[in-house]
Specification:
The protein has eleven helices and ten strands. With 282 residues, the protein is α/β, with parallel strands linked by helices. Bound molecules: adenosine-5'-triphosphate (ATP) and magnesium ion (MG).
Length: 282
């Protein structure tokens, strides 16, 4: 599957504190953390993307100006940054929702840059956009079924649905209710469960804590950590709520004006109050 074609020795998943800039940090196979033994599940290299004519006209002034991120299997990478830093754009560029102008996206070492969103989904990338986007007129179960459509075979889809209900008992008890009746936290759970029904390898989560009460935010973060630990999913967790995200993340990336300002172990980032203050105003 993964071959010698793409990776070129970029395995920056090792240790803390290396300001990554755009280079991603060369270096041999990463011993640190014991998580990355080989090709990262997701590797974004020097990604450039933007909107409309901005890239052509402004050159550097694009939403993403050469971003490199590497995520090992079974890890949560918190993607942090101020408003407009490029977090959402990064997820959109990875999942094929906006045009990639430069750089590459590798999944298990395979170049998947510029694939269509549906092909990215088939390749194992699930994207949960900002805003708890359930279809309120549909029941919980109908929403979930949408997530399984990509799976081949009725029996497979039915089994996946049952698994989702075991994983999310709250949704099981509300399965016949319109999604409109769910709380914000339950809706967030529903969109995550819906994404998981596609059986992804990589989950891209855009601000799952947005608009939720602090206690519910903790629950959502615990859910994300639990998914990583129980399924080995590789998760990019975009968050404004840096502290909540870093509390469960393995690594953290701070974006600033469309570039990677810092890449580090999550615990080291969380402890660096000066840095959090500088980039995130915390
Ligand atoms: N649809 C769009 N059309 C034009 N410019 C856009 C569009 N979406 C985002 N941008 C611009 O691209 C840049 C990056 O935006 P992006 O939404 O990726 O930031 P973000 O880090 O997700 O911010 P937030 O924390 O507010 O969600 C910003 O300058 C933003 O104004
Ligand atoms: Mg955003």
């Amino acid at each position: 599957m993964a071959d010698a074609g793409g990776n070129g020795g970029h395995l920056p998943a090792g240790d803390a504190g290396s300001p990554a800039g755009t280079g991603g940090g060369p270096g041999g196979p990463a011993p640190g953390g014991g998580l990355a033994d080989g090709v990262p599940v997701l590797a974004v290299q020097d990604l450039v993307a933007g909107y409309g004519e901005a890239v052509a006209r402004y050159g550097e002034a694009v939403a993403l100006g050469g971003v490199s991120i590497s995520a090992a299997q079974g890890t949560v990478t918190a993607v942090l940054g101020a408003n407009g830093a490029g977090k959402t754009t990064l997820l959109r560029a990875i999942s094929g929702l906006i045009k990639v102008r430069g750089g590459s996206v590798l999944l298990d070492g395979v170049d998947v840059t510029r694939r269509k969103p549906e092909d990215m989904a088939r390749a194992g990338v699930a994207h949960v956009p900002e805003g708890q986007g359930v279809i309120t007129e549909l029941t919980v179960e109908e929403n979930l079924r949408l997530g399984a459509l990509i799976r081949a075979g009725r029996a497979v889809r039915a089994a996946a649905l049952e698994q989702a209900y075991q994983q999310f008992p709250v949704l099981a008890s509300r399965r016949r209710k319109p999604a409109a009746t769910l709380s914000g936290g339950e809706r967030q759970m529903l969109v995550i469960a819906r994404a998981l029904l596609a059986a992804p390898r990589v989950l891209l989560l855009d601000e799952p804590s947005l608009g939720l009460a602090p206690i519910v935010i903790s629950q959502v973060m615990a859910l994300v950590a639990g998914l990583r630990d129980s399924t080995g999913l590789t998760i990019l967790l975009v968050e404004q709520n840096a502290r909540a995200a870093l509390a469960i993340a393995d690594r953290g990336v701070v974006l600033n004006l469309g570039k990677v300002a810092v890449t580090a172990q999550a615990a080291d980032l969380a402890a660096d109050t000066g840095l959090l203050n500088h980039y995130l105003g915390l």
